[in-house]
Write a structure and sequence with these properties.
Elements lengths: L3 H12 L5 H8 L3 H13 L19 E9 L4 H12 L4 E6 L6 E7 L2 H13 L5 E8 L17
Antiparallel strand pairs: 1-3, 1-4, 2-3
Helix pairs in contact: 1-2, 2-3
């Protein structure tokens, strides 16, 4: 169970993951040792799953973001596992969500250009072991609201 101080820690780290323990402790009103113990507990309990830098894809030769809806031919666990295992091997696939409804997956891809993305999706469709029935792609024109973290306001 988390309390108001834990929520302050989570909010601070979510906004600025590189805070030193001292600065974090100052922000949430704890001693550094008590703050460190809480952060370790939040990590151990799974509230904090990792730390990462946010990178600018276009600076790294990946200016194209595409959201793809994927439908599989078969819906058994074995077919899903084969697809998911393959997807995890694709560095261009940066996020994937299993969906309910008409589509099985929503995948975020980053690519060098439309040609490299097309090659990637053709390979997904052409591989009979993956069982991909259909891919519908939506090219992101611009980012209006980047990922801002999990809303913590109003939680107790």
């Amino acid at each position: 169970m988390i309390d108001a101080i834990d929520l302050k820690i989570l909010a601070a780290l979510q906004a600025e993951g590189r805070l030193t323990n001292q600065k974090l402790a100052d922000r949430v009103g704890l001693s550094p040792s008590a703050c460190h113990a809480r952060v370790r507990r939040l990590e151990k309990e799974g509230y904090i799953t990792g730390y990462q830098a946010t990178l600018k894809p276009e600076f790294l030769g990946r200016p194209l973001t595409v959201f793809a809806l994927v439908a599989l031919e078969r819906h058994g666990r074995q077919g899903q596992k084969a697809f998911e295992t393959h997807l995890k091997s694709l560095p261009e696939a940066t996020e994937c969500f299993e969906l309910s409804g008409q589509w099985d997956y929503l995948i975020r891809f980053v690519a060098q250009d439309i040609e490299s993305y097309q090659t990637l999706t053709e390979a997904l469709i052409d591989d009979p072991d993956l069982g991909v029935a259909q891919v519908v792609s939506h090219v992101a024109m611009r980012t209006v609201q980047p990922y801002a973290g999990i809303p913590l306001e109003g939680l107790k």
